[in-house]
């Protein structure tokens, strides 16, 4: 924040007024080296001088095109007559079991009779074996890992970093399904920084294409791949969307490239592969566990307790279509055909892990205020909340207790969207409901669930 203020005042002193969107903390994170930042800012200060006026957005889109074309070159040819993946006695490869969603998927797979073996692919020397027990204990998830083989992996390597012991070949012979969940959930880095992970998607595609069986590949993407979808266009369809400009942050761009690679490979290499565009995942339904307090909504609640005011509207997030994490895990495994037998021909294209049963933020805001009692004196407009948060950030605030100051940009963008009249973007769920019993039975987020999360956060 201080870097942006210093730079902005420098520009202003030089007679170059510069907007908040042009020079925000996010721009600094997206251009992490002095050279990248200079390349971003220089054209803005020399417009009309015959110097390239290519914007940062244009450069990022070019890079996405380049990544997409590079990692969809020479896709493996289709292999005919492959046997179908097993349902009874299946082997599932799951990446990122040490994360939140991954831990819930691992738990569910461990409890399924039809699953014979789970191969947990994680970074770190023992493939997550030593970390998983405490991750699961905290969430009240299983500690019976008798079916799980934890393997250290590096997906950016062609053999998935599995090294010696012929492990890669053993997995090629036995795998039935891959759920690719591991990804840096980092909104501050550029798409270029995600390249090792994009390369990892290609390596999993290569694996699925040459595996003995018609291995199912499910890639967990994000609705962030279409951040710029205007609500006026109506609901986002459950299909491939090639408009690269719709992704607006490095994270969403990386997911868009990854999912387009999967869609391209599904066709060209004839593999049963699909992407799940996951919406923002809510906390757990059970008492144990926690909704990551670093995320924008928990941070907003923490800052509301600190400031004593809670916004009663959230702009484009006024409609709450989140799904508790257990259900996102179950829905994803439904789509992958792990929970119930599904024909591989149905596992293709895009699905949406977004709750068809919605509620209004204002209803949940009342529940939060009720939970905190006097500590939240009143509900205010989003504008008043943003102004108060900005004021607090200039007074040397306690960032631990007031973490929303780190996300001011985000909340400002909600306000700008609200003021511009941009509404909530709806995601179609017809295909998802057709394949996933979990999606069909989802209920809306209730005030009671919201209070459960407040209890867990302990702000
Ligand atoms: N949370 C959401 O609201 C949301 C919404 C839409 C989509 N998603 C997607 O859902 C998936 C799971 O998200 P989550 O909320 O469960 O995230 P999380 O708790 O941060 O877990 C991320 C997982 O990915 C692994 N990972 C992160 N960076 C890595 C790296 N550089 N190399 C190897 N592994 C790495 C982590 O391993 P370590 O334990 O070693 O760090 C962890 O196992 C991600 O693909 C995410 O993009 C999440």
TrEMBL record:
Name the UniProt record assigns to this protein: Thioester reductase (TE) domain-containing protein
PANTHER family attached to this UniProt entry: ENZYME, PUTATIVE (JCVI)-RELATED, PHENYLACETATE-COENZYME A LIGASE
Membrane spanning stretches: none
InterPro entries, A to Z: Adenylate-forming_Reductase, FAR_NAD-bd, NAD(P)-bd_dom_sf
Keyword ATP-binding on entry: no
Gene3D superfamilies (UniProt xref): NAD(P)-binding Rossmann-like Domain
Claim: Phosphoprotein is one of the keywords in the record: yes
Entry keywords, A to Z: Phosphopantetheine, Phosphoprotein
Alphabetical list of Pfam families matching this protein: NAD_binding_4
Domain Thioester reductase (TE): 94-330
């Amino acid at each position: 924040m201080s870097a942006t203020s210093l730079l902005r005042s420098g520009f202003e002193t030089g007679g170059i007024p510069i907007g908040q969107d042009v020079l925000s903390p996010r721009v600094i994170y997206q251009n992490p080296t002095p050279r990248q930042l200079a390349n971003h800012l220089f054209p803005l200060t020399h417009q009309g001088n015959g110097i390239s006026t290519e914007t940062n957005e244009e450069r990022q889109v070019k890079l996405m095109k380049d990544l997409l074309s590079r990692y969809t070159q020479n896709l493996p040819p289709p292999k005919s007559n492959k046997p179908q993946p097993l349902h009874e006695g299946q082997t599932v490869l799951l990446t990122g079991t040490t994360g939140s969603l991954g831990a819930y998927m691992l738990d569910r797979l461990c409890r399924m009779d039809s699953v014979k073996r789970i191969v947990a692919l994680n970074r770190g020397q023992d493939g997550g074996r030593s970390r998983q027990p405490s991750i699961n204990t905290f969430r009240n998830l299983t500690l019976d890992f008798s079916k799980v083989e934890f393997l250290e992996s590096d997906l950016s390597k062609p053999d998935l970093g599995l090294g010696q012991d012929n492990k890669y070949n053993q997995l090629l012979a036995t795998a039935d399904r891959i759920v690719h969940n591991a990804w840096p959930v980092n909104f501050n880095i550029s798409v270029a920084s995600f390249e090792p992970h994009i390369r990892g998607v290609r390596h999993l595609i290569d694996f699925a294409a040459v595996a003995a069986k018609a291995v199912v590949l499910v890639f967990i993407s994000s609705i962030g791949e279409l951040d710029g979808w205007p609500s006026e266009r109506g609901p986002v369809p459950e299909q491939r969307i090639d408009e690269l400009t719709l992704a607006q942050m490095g994270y969403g761009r990386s997911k868009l490239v990854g999912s387009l690679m999967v869609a391209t490979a599904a066709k060209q290499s004839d593999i049963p592969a699909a992407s799940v565009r996951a919406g923002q995942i809510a906390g757990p339904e059970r008492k144990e566990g926690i909704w990551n307090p670093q995320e924008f909504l928990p941070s907003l609640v923490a800052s509301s307790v600190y400031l004593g005011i809670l916004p009663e509207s959230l702009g484009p997030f006024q409609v709450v279509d989140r799904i508790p994490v257990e259900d996102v895990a179950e829905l994803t495994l439904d789509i992958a055909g792990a929970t119930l037998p599904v024909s591989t021909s149905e596992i293709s294209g895009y699905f949406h892990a977004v709750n068809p049963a919605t509620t209004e933020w204002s209803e949940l805001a009342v529940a939060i205020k009720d939970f905190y009692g006097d500590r939240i004196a009143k509900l205010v407009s989003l504008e008043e909340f943003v102004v108060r948060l900005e004021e607090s950030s200039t007074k040397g605030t306690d960032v631990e207790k007031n973490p929303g100051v780190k996300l001011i940009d985000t909340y400002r963008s909600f306000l700008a969207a609200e003021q511009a009249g941009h509404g909530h973007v709806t995601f179609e769920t017809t295909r998802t409901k057709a394949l996933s019993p979990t999606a069909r039975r989802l209920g809306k987020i209730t005030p009671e669930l919201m209070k459960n999360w407040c209890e867990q956060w302990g702000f």
